[in-house]
Amino acid sequence: MKPTFTFLTTFLLAPLAALLADDAPARQPARQTPWHLGPPKTEHAVSNRALTMAPSITVAPKGRLWATFYAGVTPGEDLNNYVVLSTSGDNGATWQEVLTMDPDAGGPVRAFDPEVWVSPDGRLFLFWAQRRPSVKPELWCAETAQPDAAQPEWSLPRRIGEGVMMCKPLVFSSGEWGLPISQWGNKGWSVGDNSAQLVVSTDAGKTWTLRGSCNVPKDAREADEHMFVERTDGSLWLLVRTRYGIGESVSTDRGKTWPDLTPSGIEHPTSRFFVRRLVSGNLLLVKHGPLDQRIGRSHLTAYLSKDDGKTWSGGLMLDERPGVSYPDGQQTPDGLIRIIYDYNRVTDRNILMAAFREEDVAGGKNVSGAVKLRQLVSKGTGGKEKPKPSKAPVRANDDGKPMRTAKPGTLTSAGAKSQPLIPGAKLFTDRAYVAAEIPAPLKNAHFLPIAMNGQKTLKCERTGTVFFLTPALDRSGDSAAQALIDQGFEKVALPEIPLFIPEMVANYSTLFQKDCAAGETILIGKWAVPVILP
């Protein structure tokens, strides 16, 4: 028997914050009612934010805009995170933050990954995830029947069940509502078997039932952040964030069963994308970079498909800068499309909006005259630094082998060009981390900037000794040390290097070396930096 979740839908007649405790309670489990869901408190001020990220947008029936995202006083995805809801009554010219959701005022429960959505019957829903350390996250929501009011009255917050929903709900041709819920584990962004779920309501949100789920292969799993498309033939097309980009699966029985996920052919970094059917019947896809290239989190671009996703055309550049990510959007009946996204989450701390029409996407330029890019929704400032752990001593690695420099080999990876390994160098194609410290023995070395996430294949182009930097196994759960050792690499007698974010011991990196023959391949996961000596 599949689980069913029942919601209370009684609306409050008094402001919700007055019914919630005014003082932060003692440490509580994630499923307990949030401490605060109401007007922003002083600690939630936009001038007290070191983190701003993961936005969502929706438009009320009479045109009021609603945007949500999560923020924190420290620059990290941590126990300080809370959800913000902002609104605009002048088409995005100005915004007012009217609601924050904070589960427990500073931890240990964090609130994150919100979504905002207007249902077919005109209700405004705010969804978010809550999580306590070492416990699976849980999906919560609140709703209002006054989506066009600047200060609507909200229902009590209610728990849907375990999981995270990072993308828009979908209304099917049957009238059913579907939620793309991902089942994460109890640590980080890990997901288990059959994690990409379709949870359906047949009674306009009163109850929800798990209809089916898709299994993402273990070596490709990375938070899911999946979306559904109902195709014109009645099948359901599932697109999922993976370590290799975007995976896909198709259900022909209304979502009850799903084949295992396979690559979609749409090149993309390990990051959220956005896909939605437009009023014309065509599909809109917002992704990073060209359709046939996997790049980092930059060049946010909109594309169109007239054949249910078989082919894509057009290409309107929304924002080409490194650091843009996590698009979400909506098209209104008048044809205007709005896309919201974040930019440099801990430096610029911007939430931005782009507006355009379908003909602009098709033409790849401002055909309609309606294109407006980089409209500011929110800009965080202030906050405080994340508490720094006690800096552990750097290990000497005296038990390693002498560094072999007499005959250096070279490495290649598809699309990667070697760069000088110097302080400030951007180390990965899918992350913004830059090198902090480079020791004297690597003074003239180069490196290959490759993705941090996912499986990578490198080839030895010139016979000789090749090198990788990665944390020791006990330093980081993301170490590639074991994979390197299994392929014949050995530790070098060189002290650990605080490679990036030097206050984090998990980034203390050890140098590994191996004598490779030309043509030999090396497989690595998350994460290692290929190093090439002159």
Q: Can you put this structure into words, describing what you see?
A:
This protein has 534 residues and is an all-beta fold. It contains 2 helices and 36 strands. It has helices at residues 358-363, 481-486, and strands at 4-6, 36-38, 51-59, 65-72, 82-88, 96-102, 110-118, 124-131, 138-144, 158-162, 170-171, 177-184, 191-201, 207-214, 221-230, 236-242, 246-251, 262-263, 274-277, 283-288, 300-305, 313-319, 324-331, 337-343, 350-356, 372-379, 410-412, 419-420, 446-447, 456-462, 464-471, 490-491, 497-498, 508-516, 521-524, 529-532. A hairpin with a 5-residue loop joins β7 and β8 (124-131). The longest helix is centred in the C-terminal third of the chain and has 6 residues, at 358-363. The N and C termini lie far apart (63 Å). 46% of the residues are buried.
Find the count of extended strands (DSSP E, 2+ residues): 36
Helical/strand content category: mainly beta
What Rg do the Cα atoms give?
A: 24 Å
On the 0-100 scale, what is the average pLDDT?
91
The amount of helix comes to under 10%
Q: Point out poorly predicted stretches.
A: 5-29
Q: Distance between termini?
A: 63 Å
Please work out how many helical segments DSSP would assign. 2
- Percent in strands: 35-45%
**Which word captures the global form?**
globular
Give the tags.
mainly beta; seven-stranded antiparallel beta sheet; 2% helix; five-stranded antiparallel beta sheet; 534 residues
